[in-house]
Predict the structure.
Amino acid sequence: RVCRDGQSPDKLRKSTDDLMAGGVTGGAAGTWSDRFEQGLHPVIERFNASIGFDITLLQEDLDGSVAHARMLAACGVISDDEARQLSEGLETIRTEAAAGEFQPGLADEDVHFAVERRLIALLGPVGKKLHTGRSRNDQVGTDLRLWLRRRLDDLDACVLRFQRALLSQALAQRTTLIPGYTHLQRAQPVCLAHHLLAYVEMLERDRQRFRDVRGRVNISPLGAAALAGTPVPIDRRLTADALGFDGIYANSLDAVSDRDFAVEFASAASLVMVHLSRLAEEVIFWASEECGFVRLTDRCATGSSLMPQKKNPDVPELVRGKCGRVFGHLQGLLTMIKGLPLAYNKDFQEDKEALFDAVRTTTDCLEAMAILMEEGVEFRPDRLEQAVGSDFSNATDVADYLVARDVPFREAYQLVGSVVKRCLQDGVLLLDLSLEQWKSFHPVFEADLFEALAPRQVVAARISEGGTGFSRVDEQLALWEQRLA
Ligand code: ARG
């Protein structure tokens, strides 16, 4: 469990203790209507409160309330002067918060009550008019959407930065080769830039998904009130426009109980984490002594407390490890919403920590991986060169050579299999065989075979659309340079 946008559980405990000590009001008996005679049991007060983490929504809560106050005046529900006082009071709270002087207590329950109470303390009776025609149910939905919209824009910038880091590595490695794998067995050599651009493509889909989610996040529930709308003559389009929403929920029940966008976000974020983890795993593999395709720079690697020779890939390992949190939040959110009857239920309070942590984790991982690509890894051309020339990953090209000379593919495939078998028995590679030996397998082999089997030519030849041939990769690099400019 985390709070305040991702603090540790210990901190949460400490901060709720602080909150207990620092409550600004006289306990929950003061919160509710006169039907309540007793205050909350202190353990229940702590259990019920979300202020420890929903203080994260403070800016958005203030923004939403300013828009709501102005709309109330525009609709003649309150006077212009009252709206001005409310707006100024809300801005005062913003200033107090920036100075560290706004410190709600546990008794405030959540950020919405905390702001309203402070406003009433600042303004007196006028402050009591702010909550007209509104409920915390539509309010919290509004805050959450405004908050997530902002974070989606930040995330888009993070993904873009990461794509650019990959692209500049790719541009620097346009002629470098790397073994291509299937089943983590050497398959065919590829251009390293091609390999890196594969991640740029995945990340582009991630950006599309975030944009798509943003479209559904950016709908205003404000004015749905508790669940059924309100008899107060409000104008929901005014607040929606003022807050930059693209539209309003058509159904008040749906408005206060929709958390689809949170699930969609967690799902899109999970796929980002999947992509990051795949590259993370490759970097870990590349940096291993067995592979040695990259060297980790001191900027992004760590040592061992015991073994002085060690240099560990902590950054990609952490990224790989943090996937569980984001996937877990997706599962948690789905489970939290499942079976909830309409409309608002307190279960929804559980959406916040999941979203806050999913956003923070995904953002942090994107930043760390971008830095890793920018200055954390150095490819080792010597090791890569040696790797692509020391295996049978040009075997398919012998078959392709035969196919180009009218040998049916399946027949060629069988024949190359027997050549490889012979090489393995003799402890040699395909390029070590003499032309006479090749001709003993098939008469069509000529001296041009040797050029065709050189790793650089093996890569260059794959010029089908989307292939790793240098000319195709250059086209893609140019395209991505334009797109990410
Ligand atoms: N803290 C609450 C939440 O996070 C705000 C809404 C409370 N609404 C209510 N009817 N109790 O969901």
Notes: The pocket of arginine is lined by residues 50, 54, 110, 136-137, 140, 344, 346, 348-349 (CB under 6 Å). Residues 1 and 7 are 8 Å apart (CA to CA). The chain has 20 helices and six strands.
